[in-house]
């Protein structure tokens, strides 16, 4: 829709409209989580997805109007083992969320793919796990979208540092 969306850790998702390089409006949506939103990404259908540090996930579906009445919320804590949200990015294949933990009973750092369920009977998002590093202890530091809509992730632990390519885009050639 041409707007800029911001995750404000003071407890808001903000929609900023700009015209000719000048901010023309800011709409704040209060987020009813235990903490302010930590990450935000735009899904392939324009849905605004956001997560807080404690693995609460929210969405404002595209076309529904940017309002609190249209905001949806879920807890991902049981799905991701109580880990904390770290990075989020949108791609044509969905929204991707990385998590981290500093130990505890369920030390697992992974990448999660979040997609819309697509049915009114099951409005919760579909969450699937990807661990490109093969080790539950891998500390994922970043995730980015590259050519052909493939995702790249890096980790810093265990040593040596590595970069992984998640093949999720156009078929590879060459």
Notes on the structure:
Helix content is 0%, strand content 48%. The chain is mostly beta strands and 174 residues long. The strands form four sheets. The chain has a four-stranded antiparallel beta sheet with strand order 4-5-6-7, with no helix packed on it. The protein has a four-stranded antiparallel beta sheet with strand order 8-9-10-11, with no helix packed on it. It has a three-stranded antiparallel beta sheet with strand order 1-2-3, with no helix packed on it. The chain is globular. The N and C termini lie far apart (36 Å).
Reconstruct the topology from this structure.
Blueprint: E1 4-8, E2 12-19, E3 22-30, E4 37-42, E5 48-52, E6 56-60, E7 72-75, E8 84-91, E9 94-100, E10 111-115, E11 126-130, E12 140-145, E13 151-155, E14 162-166
Antiparallel strand pairs: 1-2, 2-3, 4-5, 5-6, 6-7, 8-9, 9-10, 10-11, 12-13, 13-14
